[in-house]
Here is the input.
Amino acid sequence: MGDPPAPRTAHVPARARCARVVVTGMGMVSPLGPDVARSFAAALAGRSAVRPAPGHLAAGLPGMLAAPAAIEPAGLLDAADAGLDRATQLALAAAAQALGEAGVESAPDDAERFGVFSGIGFGGACTLDAMYTRYVGHLLGDAAERRRATVMHPLTVPRLMANAAQGLVSMRYGLRGMGNTYCVACASSAVAAGEALRAIRDGYLDAAVVLGSEAMLTPGSLVAWNALRVLARADAADPAASCRPFDRRRSGFVLGEAGAALVLESETRARARGARELAELAGYGASSDAHHLTAPSVPGQVAAMRQALAHADLAPGDVGYLNAHGTATELGDLSEAQAIVDVFGPRGPAVSSTKAVHGHLIGAGGAVELILAIQALRTGRLPPGAHLEQPDPRCAGVDLIAGAARDAAGIHAVMSNSFAFGGSNACLVARRATTQALAADPP
Here is the structure.
């Protein structure tokens, strides 16, 4: 008969579940500015970074728009980083800001319990586009050029990898804890933040860097997105005002690029080292629509929002501001508006979509929009829905912030929604840290 099988033992976290996870550092390179403060100031002012796409991007596609990063990320990095894909450069620049604000030194003593979680929608888009442009260009040349067509940089594949940013940040700062890269379209970095929150709260880690990045402003990407018929038409009077979430004149979104990063720590770790607590990342909800590859589903969005509230142990009335996914597509706006009403009731939290000014940042969107929501929580100033001049009456049950920023000094918690193609929904809730540091006035 032989010996009986050994009993299975469940994997147990190395440390007990922690009560709270706090944000101690944030960084951002976005279309709105080279850092968090200037990006948030632009969002508050409704100052749009949308502009006509340059000719080399929009060849054959007249009227294309784009929201490029406000500064070249390579200029913020070492010369050795010049060959990295642009999305990785954006992530590295944002990570340096966030870790610097958090006061995290390289190779901390607890490096094995400090992870890196990254989100990106389409890793290496710039590298891939340049590779095929070179390849095809040489194939169409003379005999000498054709012989060179297959000669590529030996690091092309590592530059293309979706997990390049996660790996490089881990190596650069000596962070050896668990971590992953999430490729979940528009929800990628929101999922990364939520999974990092769970890993710390459940005792698998004590700290993590969360990254979100995207750089797909390439001819190939624009052609592909244009084929979906979801991109905004250029406003003839003011191209910068072309993206109008929740407005009856909406025509779609504008692609942008960005990098964003947050440092998360257990409250115990943060307080032991005297770190400044910017906010508490309190709740995460995720769901799958099981409905359609590109069309949203109200029940799936409702499920994710309710999960996030339950995870944060908050009631709907506790949330004072919601940064909506708000893509300025008719189906997307109406579905999200209905989902918000289903969760919060009519006239629930104040709502705006900052995509109107920074564009749709795909994999970076969740992290960027979470940071902007946290800044709203810290300052008591809520960014408006820019260009929202004729609110769609079908969204009447939602308290949309139109025109100018709104003062809301007493808000206790904020939510950020990220809903992706493929039916993946991710919602994050942040609330005031018990020892919250006030944000400096934006410039």
In short: DSSP finds 13 helices and 15 strands in the chain. The chain has a mean pLDDT of 93.
